Amino acid sequence: MRFVLYARASTKDKQNPEHQLAELEAEAARRGWTVVRKIIERESGRKDDRAEWTAAVDAVLAGQADGVASTELSRWGRSTSHLLEVSAAFREAGKHLVCTRQPIDTTTPVGRLLFVLLAAVAEFEADITRERVRAGVRYAIAKRGGAWGRMREHVPRATVLAAMDLRQAGLSWRRTAARLYAVGHAQPARDRGRSAHPARPWSVPTLQRAIASVQLPSDSGGSNPAPDAGQ
């Protein structure tokens, strides 16, 4: 039989698709298949319009091969409806889909049943993963009071007031940051994460945002104490 070998990993997947291809080549040799094409693709399995995947399907339906082999059903795709649609097209054309790590072989009744069941499981797992990500985002937004993205640095009130005095004295933003650092107004060190750094001067954009957030006393003579920036 003639087979197309299809290996896929998403752009964020740590798995090397070339390892999948080596496994498929070994299976083809064991079963005496003739390999007519080898395909490696880096794309999300949620997409139904993957270029290399479409080329594999077209090659089979055009009669260039008797079927497609992949290591797992999740490599082939994660949408149950689309997987079943392609499976039906293959079956009508007398073509086959084989997954070497799972008992899926559409040439047999049991293989066709397992194909339907595992296709549903693959889509369910993808939906659960997506919902976990959304739940994490919702939690982070609620914890940050509606903010999302990297948390801004908290600039102490004393640093903000000192920066305002230096700016009113005519210093540039860069000189203001340098003077603050020289007199002990430093951005605290961070020892964890990718943004770990030693104590350093406050950046100009951070100081600008901090000063802009301070409420100055009104013209009526009322006094509003400046809050800690970043709160």
What is shown here, in short?
Helices cover 47% and strands 12% of the residues. By secondary structure, the chain is α/β, with parallel strands linked by helices.
Q: How many distinct beta strands?
A: 5
According to CATH, the homologous superfamily of the largest domain is Resolvase, N-terminal catalytic domain
Per CATH, the class of the largest domain reads Alpha Beta
**Corresponding CATH architecture of the largest domain:** 3-Layer(aba) Sandwich
| Largest pleated sheet | 5 strands, mixed
- Assign an overall shape: elongated
Please, could you describe this protein's structure?
- The chain has 231 residues and is an alpha/beta fold.
- The protein has two domains: 2-130, 3-Layer(aba) Sandwich (Rossmann fold); 157-212, no CATH class.
- 47% of the residues lie in helices and 12% in strands.
- The chain is built from eight helices and five strands, in the order E-H-E-H-E-H-H-E-E-H-H-H-H.
- It has helices spanning 17-31, 51-61, 73-76, 80-92, 109-143, 157-168, 173-182, 204-212, and strands spanning 2-9, 34-42, 67-70, 96-99, 104-105.
- A five-stranded mixed sheet has the order 2-1-3-4-5, with helices on both faces.
- Strand 4 and strand 5 form a beta hairpin.
- Helix 6 (157-168) packs across helix 7 (173-182).
- The model is unreliable at 215-231 (pLDDT under 50).
Give a topology summary:
Elements: E1 2-9, H1 17-31, E2 34-42, H2 51-61, E3 67-70, H3 73-76, H4 80-92, E4 96-99, E5 104-105, H5 109-143, H6 157-168, H7 173-182, H8 204-212
Parallel strand pairs: 1-2, 1-3, 3-4
Antiparallel strand pairs: 4-5
Helix pairs in contact: 6-7
